[in-house]
Amino acid sequence: MTLSVGLLLIATLALSCLSTSIVKQQDQALAQQYIQTIKYRNLVIDLGNGVKTNAQLTLPAVGKGPFPAVLLVHGSGRTDMNETGPNAKPFWQISQYLSERGFAVLRYDKRGIGANHAIVDSNIWGNATFNDLKRDAQRALAVLINQPEVDPNEITILGHSEGTILAPRVAIDNATKVKNIVLMGAVAQNSSDIAYLQGVSMPLLYAEKVLDRDHSGMLSISEANQNPVFSTLAGNLTLLLETTNGTKHQLNPKYNTNNDAYISINNELKPKLIAQVKSLSVVTPGKKCTGTCPIWFRSHYALEPTLSIIGNVPPKTSILILQGENDTQTPVHQAFLLQQALIDKRHPDHTLITYPNLGHLFYPSSEWQTGFGPIQQNVLADLYAWLEAHSGLSHSYVTTTTATSTIGVANTSSLNTNTTSSKR
Fold first, then answer.
1. What are phi and psi of 412, to 5 degrees?
2. Quick count: other Cβ atoms within 10 Å of Cβ 216?
3. Is a pLDDT exceeding 50 seen at residue 403?
4. Which residues contact 262 (CB under 8 A, 6 or more apart)?
5. Peptide bond into 66 cis (omega under 30)
6. CA-CA-CA-CA torsion sign (321, 324, 330, 335)
7. Which letter does DSSP use for residue 144 in this model?
8. What distance in Å separates the CA atoms of residue 190 and residue 203, rounded to the nearest whole number?
9. How far apart are alpha carbons 50 and 124 in whole angstroms?
């Protein structure tokens, strides 16, 4: 009986200690939520010609600097400073992560756009060209450099999607000011090629590989319209195939011979998709643009591909390319092309990291559709590690020609680092 009581007392004491420990850990975790690790300053950037936009500078909570700094340049479309989207704010996430670890980060609303990607001036937004956006990025760069907490010799431009077209060009034009560029979801080819890939190649491939089960080359209109992935890729197929009879829109009779009409994927669907992509750059007088605008498309189509100019990035400007292998908007081959061009030009310091199963937002995605959610932690860790080593904070970074690191089964990152000593 004495032994049992003794054991009971020991067990009670152990449970009491464990309970106390758990409570202390919970209290500590709750307390940590209220510890300030970053601070911020709201700014207004003058873009010229009476156009202004809101911006925010985030800084480490401790210290006066000067801190290495990063300018975030957004992707295409109506984009605010956070790159706000469904279940995702990638630029807000990047700014928090980097500022907590010692970086100043500047992000800004795209011209004509306000919080939550709302259009605040349809005229400014609808007439924005690539050159406007490039000048905006350069003005934001100047604002960042002039902040008292920023080290002007440690500046990085990070571009996502369309921002990967802007960042190299801004770096080339500001060779003495930009030390590093980071390209996330990179674009190598002209935007017309990307539009064709997104609007024609991907829907056709999905129709052939997934919807055309008997390999007849025919597509059921009703099945296609009910398939959420195909609808995301191609839009509403009925509207795509409709005809206009006076003021009435209806499905073209030749596609409506029965309740489950079929069309030829190659002979009927493909021409419609091509026509739809071509219409993106057609300006309709008097029509307000609420999405990605025809004037913007035209300005992009006139550009030389980034693949042709990436070799002009100064040798002293280091380059990091991060790419999801399931990116359906700027597929991984875009990053491979840039990597090949940099090797061909013998650029001395460029790194490519690819992530299996991640999409355009660096969130788990299928091979057909972009997943919406926060950037995965291993991507942020890779970004910080590279920036830390390239911004005067440390000198520890992988310099082997090829290495592979496993960070969870689903998100293994393949790392390729090239230096002047790399063999061709």
1. -75, 135
2. 10
3. no
4. 218, 219, 220, 221
5. yes
6. positive
7. H
8. 20
9. 11
Q: Global pTM?
A: 0.83
The answer to whether 162 and 74 have CB atoms below 8 angstroms apart is: yes
How many other C-beta atoms lie within 10 A of the C-beta of residue 5? 9
Helix ranges, 33-114 (H): 90-100
- Three-class SS state of 189: coil
Q: How many contiguous H segments (helices) and E segments (strands) does the chain have?
A: 15, 14
**pLDDT for the residue 116:** 86
In sequence order, which residues have a C-beta less than 8 Å from that of residue 179 and are 6 or more positions away?
Answer: 153, 154, 155, 156, 316, 317, 318, 390, 391
Q: Report angle CA 87, 88, 90 to the nearest 5 degrees.
A: 170
Amino acid at 131: N
Q: Which of 330, 367, 75, 295 is nearest to 198 (CA)?
A: 330
DSSP letter for 328, please.
S
Q: Give me 85's structure tokens.
A: 């989207």
pLDDT score of 23 = 47
Q: How far is Cα 376 from Cα 179, in angstroms, rounded to an integer?
A: 26
For residue 175 the two structure tokens come to: 């060779």
Least confident of 4-13, 181-190, 286-295: 4-13
